[in-house]
Amino acid sequence: MAVTLVFLGKLADLVGTDQRVVQAPLDWQGLLDELQGPIGEAVQQDRTRVAVNGALLADKTALSAVSGDEVALLPPVSGG
Amino acid sequence: MAVTLVFLGKLADLVGTDQRVVQAPLDWQGLLDELQGPIGEAVQQDRTRVAVNGALLADKTALSAVSGDEVALLPPVSGG
Amino acid sequence: MARDVRLLTEPFNPGQFIGPFTNAHPGLGGVCTFVGEVRADDDAVEALELIHYEKMTLAGMEDLADRAIARFDLMGLLVIHRSGVMRVGEPIVLVSAAAKHRREAIDAVDFTMDHLKSDSWFWKREKRADGWHWIEPRERDHTDLSRWG
Amino acid sequence: MARDVRLLTEPFNPGQFIGPFTNAHPGLGGVCTFVGEVRADDDAVEALELIHYEKMTLAGMEDLADRAIARFDLMGLLVIHRSGVMRVGEPIVLVSAAAKHRREAIDAVDFTMDHLKSDSWFWKREKRADGWHWIEPRERDHTDLSRWG
Prior knowledge:
Chain A has three helices and seven strands. In chain A, strands 2-1-7-4-5 form a five-stranded mixed β-sheet. Chain A has a two-stranded antiparallel sheet with strand order 3-6. Chain A has helices spanning 10-15, 28-34, 38-44; strands at 3-7, 19-22, 26-27, 49-52, 55-56, 64-65, 70-74. By secondary structure, chain A is an alpha+beta fold. Chain C is an alpha+beta fold. Chain C has four helices and eight strands; from the N terminus they run βαββαβββαββα. The interface between C and D is medium-sized, with 32 and 32 residues.
């Protein structure tokens, strides 16, 4: 198994897909290595949040995803 | 013609009717002469308002009703 | 701006007014609606009666609606109030405001309800086992009104 | 306390939820309801899309409903939010609160709407002649939230 990355909102546009499967395990540095260019910059912005299996990380740089985990990259919400 | 007195809310209970026709013209003293006992006391209370033909009097003691007028005696409203 | 103010002496179904009111304002951002019913907070109350005064009550409601319209940026305002004898669960009042923005709609309903409840020409009495009892104004009503300056 | 929270991916008719919700709470004093629709403030907007995240959006709405219930004295709370593509005039959101007292019902709707609009997991984009455009958060949303401390 592997780790699934889920791109929400405009982040999906930056990568051209809303999901990508990557090698497990995955930490913050591994995520940045995976996401080069504009998406990498967007993910590093303070206002982009990260959740693992639906649970928001208080500190996204502490990311530590294992096989089977779903890692969501969440830009600022724009309301209902 | 004459002046019609209209008793609203609990004032109608005090007089046992919700309307009474009295002689025109009618001023404040004439009204008090007409309304003896508990109803007279209630009408003199600050929180009892008086309207002539649907228009509230700023000073009820300035009442000056003529033939055909409807004088309403309004206790405090109790809300919808 | 559509203003619809009604004083009803027979029971009404809020749904029959809310749907058409909403549909009458295409392009709106939001509709806020409050429906007040005869509350069952006291089993001893068998019925409630609201008395209105023909020459003043509806005119006062219309004046209140005009003040709400002047104060908030609305597309439409619907104000309906019952008079007469009502039982627990029957609607007494319906206020619905349509606006481009939700805050205007919600505040307009809040404002109109506060004034309807404490500053409109209705007198209320409750029927209990031992007969009818007049309801005095509540202090809370005046506090509510003071919120609007 | 009845809590009913739904995330819908198809169009809905507010009336179909409001009537049953009100009827489910006999003895209530009042029901406040807000319905938000896709606003027609810009003819250039052909459609609106709300994107949700399966693992977080509904759970976040349920958590918000619990906070509203903890904060206000309610008899029932109904929260419905659309996801997907919508056109002008389609309902996006419905919040309805039933309570013994009107202030609780109105405030609960106000609170829930403020948080739904600015603190729930939805991302929005608009379709114009030249394609889709993502909508950024508005400053006003944060001001709204700060009202609730």
